[in-house]
Every structure is written in structure tokens, then in C-alpha cells.
Design goal:
With 87 residues, the chain is of the alpha+beta class. The protein is built from three helices and three strands, in the order βαβαβα. It has a three-stranded antiparallel beta sheet, covered by helices on one side.
Amino acid sequence: MDDHMVCVYAANGQILAQQVRAFLEASGVPSMLRGESLSKTHGLTLDELGKVEVLVAQVDEQRAQALLASAESGAFQLSEDADVERS
């Protein structure tokens, strides 16, 4: 990873942060998490306690922001060839 990491998302807890990280990674954007250790040991997610940042290399910041914006707006779609079970 690049030494110049930037925060593209601040999650309230590890679960959401892991979901965002998995989304970025699946889209080809390497990422890492930086967060409050209390969220792991005590499960706290009150105010800044439990805040976990999703970081990407500075060169990937625009792409990550665009991906997150498309997901937030509902515009993100799986490609036609995505391996998804339909029920």
C-alpha cells in the first residue's frame, strides 16, 4: 500500500467498516481499516468510540469515493455476469 493513505469512509463500528472495505476490495480498490480499539474489546460504538476509518491509497481516493457514492445513491449494480444465486 501507498504510504499516503486517506480516509474515504468513517464507520460506526467494525461490522460496517468491514462491509465497506469488502466492497472496495471487490471493486479493485485496496483498502485498510484504522479504528478505535475499544470497539473490538468492548463493542462500544458511541460517538467517536468505535469509529473505524476505511483508508485507501491517495491515488485511489477518487475511484473509491465514486464507488461509495454510487452505492449510496443506489446506482451501483452488479454486472450481468456476476455469480449471484437467484431465488
